[in-house]
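Example for tutorial group B:
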């Protein structure tokens, strides 16, 4: 198992490159090369982790700002 720690921006850039590499291949499992299946799995992992980091960042920003809808 190889683990790499990267920031969200770098993860998104890597995800885009991987997506471009795999998009010319079919989704038929009988015809898809194993390396493309592996790449698609990594894309899914990156999507999940990028989404989690973005949600965490939104939550942190929301906590930092006072609620503008309440009267102080």
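The residue assignment follows.
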């Amino acid at each position: 198992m190889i683990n790499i720690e990267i920031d969200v921006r770098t993860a998104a850039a890597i995800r885009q490159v991987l997506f471009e590499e795999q998009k010319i291949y079919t989704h038929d499992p009988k015809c898809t090369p194993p390396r493309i299946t592996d790449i698609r799995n990594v894309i899914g992992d990156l999507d999940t982790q990028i989404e989690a980091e973005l949600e965490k960042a939104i939550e942190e920003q929301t906590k930092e700002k006072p609620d503008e809808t309440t009267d102080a």
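The CA atoms of residues 3 and 42 lie 12 Å apart. Compare this with the pattern of hydrophobic and polar residues in the output above.
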